[in-house]
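ESCALATION

Customer reports they have been waiting on this structure for their group meeting. Please prioritize. Original submission:
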Amino acid sequence: MNREWRRKVETIRQRGPIERTLLDEFFDLKYDRREFIRRATMFGLSASAIGAVLAACTTTPSTPGTSGGRLRMGIIPPPAHTIEPHTFADQGALETGSIAGEHLIRTAPGLQLIPELAVSWTPNTDASAWTVKLRSGVKFQTGQAMTADDVVATYNRLVDPNSGSQAISAFKGSLSPGGIKKVDDLTVMFQLDAPTASFPYLLSSTTYQAIVLPANYQLGTFTSKPQTTGAFKLTSYTPGVSAKYDRYDGWWGGKAALDGVDVTYYSDAAAADAALLASTIDLIGQIQLASDRSLFNNPKVQIFNSHGATHREVPMRVDLNNPLKDPKVRQAIALTLDRPAIVNTLFTSFADIGNDTPWAPVYPSTVGAPDVPQRAQDLTTAKQLMSAAGYANGFKITLTTEQTGEIPQLAQIIQSAVKAINIDMSLSILTATAYFNGTQTGPPSGWGNTPWLNAPINITDWGHRAVPNVFLSAALETGGVWNAAHYSSSAFDSAAKAFVAAISLSDQKTAAKQAETILLADTPVIFPYFYNYLAAGSTSVKGYYADPQGTVYLSKTSLG
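Update from on-call: job pushed to the front of the queue and completed.
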């Protein structure tokens, strides 16, 4: 490193403890260039600062698409509820909203963060407050300019416990009402409940409910009045049938290549696949190998493949007066599963084996084997656990789940596996709409009456998150809004909070190891695998990226 580069790097180090930790870990070879870039963007370092550290900074500009044409898209399953961004909790809704909506930050390949409606984000010394600078010149599709007032109003609704917001799944423990402050017309301050080193990820598209809307937005008007900032405006919506989007010529990013997008909703994967193969549609937002095999190795189809943390969770209620209340029984069920065989059957090479914690292999903070042993099939131990719990002769239980992707096959695999420990498991497989139907207000008023949060044991689809925070706070921490197991552990809560607050990767791994170990002992939820997010399109689709989160970003997509 020459003197000039050394001077620039030292200037960055002197900015504060976060920058010093980031640089010290990188120069100590605790992570590679790619991970450094990911963490540097998370903490808001500019491209020039990153370049100074790497002594080189190159950017490949996007190739402009061919202008014109309307992309025909299939979304499966249809939205389960009204299209209201802050209440999004299912795949169909988030895909529908994301075509038109934008966020402060966008999550990009490699877990990197890209400025969208924000141009910079800077933490204080312990990451308990973040200052966000907004992009100037942005106009909503109503014609009004976007300002800090709109961002404050959007985030106040997202963290309001009485709004029905599903984004509380992301912000609980980090951001509360009153924590969002306008500094000036283009600056917002987020004062957090506790230090959160990965907070920029929560401001990104990984929190898919956080579509920025005007301060005067009226609930219930999202599908009847174009009012987002994106490249496409939603001009028509028929629930369960179709949606239409037209290009928004006032988009701050310039002119999108496509004239518009026409969405058709499907409840059956075979029907969507047939439409793509017949050239009736151009793109399917999400597919799985188990249910869409006809699309693979087909010369008319290209598969968009993204490594991420998309997964299925198998929560087991810990608070009901049935055998699942005993952690030995829950461990026994987990030990009946042959995970490599499950992955090979359902995904071949498109998935990673899970270890009953939300730390997927894609996360740099994941500990895993050998420090946290990988759970493997062990029928001998499973039978011993059942006997110790007083259930050597087994019991009857019903597993409830949804007709989505490979989930019915997974349910059948679990049903078959637990026969080895004398569990007689019935299956209740609902449509996705029925599975997510009902109330789901979350604590402190309870988990409503929706099947997916109240069944004794179920299987639920979970989208990728760029950091595991939402899985911790929503699905596993005490009182989590999506805590379908109704699990409560003060030891786990403490480890999870330590993980979220940790700035250095080594501190994150220390907390992650504690949390992973606790979850293996308690087993409130089975995480059988983490699979690659897959989408499928005709060979004419150009410039599309399959976001592991499931959001659909078409601003740079074209047909040609």
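Sent to customer with the following note: The domain at 308-532 is CATH 3.10.105.10 (Dipeptide-binding Protein; domain 3).
Escalation resolved.
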